[in-house]
Amino acid sequence: GQSLEQPSEVTAVEGAIVQINCTYQTSGFYGLSWYQQHDGGAPTFLSYNALDGLEETGRFSSFLSRSDSYGYLLLQELQMKDSASYFCAVITGANNLFFGTGTRLTVIP
Amino acid sequence: GAGVSQTPSNKVTEKGKYVELRCDPISGHTALYWYRQSLGQGPEFLIYFQGTGAADDSGLPNDRFFAVRPEGSVSTLKIQRTERGDSAVYLCASSPKGLAGVTGELFFGEGSRLTVL
């Protein structure tokens, strides 16, 4: 089976930087994805790491350490619209994708 | 269509009834996934199709749940003898082909909110 752990809630100030951690246990690991979901909306893809290291996409960066079964999502220059739930998800060898329980980010002025 | 389309957007039914939820994936996407999401939780995997066949149905909770994709495009999730615990948002997603080592990206629909009274 798969197990993913994320903090349940994070609060940060507008303009700041926040890091959301994810640790996982799975078999057949191929990569780690991150998704954003606003209340009542669909999950939308943010980033993907298949190899160790940092991937940067604008204000968002994602990091993976396969040896530590650990990754994180880094959000810089936080904006109010970044308030949402963020999910890490592992991709297994069966081309399947399993989500964590999510981290609810609240950005305050 | 431009995105993944799911119908109905909302469905209210009574305990014991039969329900069908439809998903129309992005044109050309061969992989199709169904997830279930309860309030405050992450999407829970149900079933994954590659083409017409179910590549992995290990997430279906019991034999009341069944899904088909007869022509490799539209998929229908079928729930028999609904129970109050089946109330959730059912999400459908598609991708061009396999995820592993490629893009890691699924394209999600807005979901079908099922309420069982």
What does this entry look like structurally?
The complex is a heterodimer of chains A (109) and B (117). Chain A is mainly β. Helices cover 0% and strands 61% of the residues of chain A. Chain A has no helices and 11 strands. In chain A, the strands form 2 sheets. In chain A, strands 2, 4, 5, 9, 10 and 11 form a 6-stranded mixed sheet that branches. Chain A has a 5-stranded antiparallel sheet with strand order 1-3-8-7-6, with no helix packed on it. Chain A starts with a strand and ends with a strand. Chain B has 117 residues and is mostly beta strands. Chain B is 0% helix and 47% strand. Chain B has no helices and 11 strands. In chain B, strand 5 and strand 6 form a beta hairpin. Chain B starts with a strand and ends with a strand. Chains A and B meet through strand 4, strand 5, strand 9 and strand 10 of A and strand 4, strand 5 and strand 10 of B.
List keywords for this structure.
heterodimer, A: 109 residues, mainly beta, six-stranded mixed sheet, five-stranded antiparallel sheet, 11 strands, B: 117 residues, seven-stranded mixed sheet, four-stranded antiparallel sheet, 0% helix
Query: Topology as H/E string of chain B?
Result: EEEEEEEEEEE
H and E string of chain A: EEEEEEEEEEE
Beta-strand share of residues of chain B: over 45%
Low-confidence stretches of chain A: none
Radius of gyration of chain B: 13 Å
Percentage of residues in helical conformation of chain B: under 10%
Given helix and strand content, the structural type of chain B is mainly beta
Query: Rg of chain A from C-alpha positions?
Result: 13 Å
Oligomeric state as shown:
heterodimer
Biggest protein-protein contact in the assembly: A-B, 26 and 28 residues
The number of strands of chain B is 11
The 3D shape of chain A can be described as globular
Number of strands of chain A: 11
Number of helices of chain B: 0
Instruction: Quote the distance from N terminus to C terminus of chain B.
Output: 33 Å
Beta-strand portion of chain A reads over 45%
Helix content of chain A: under 10%
Structural class of chain A: mainly beta
Mean pLDDT value of chain A:
95
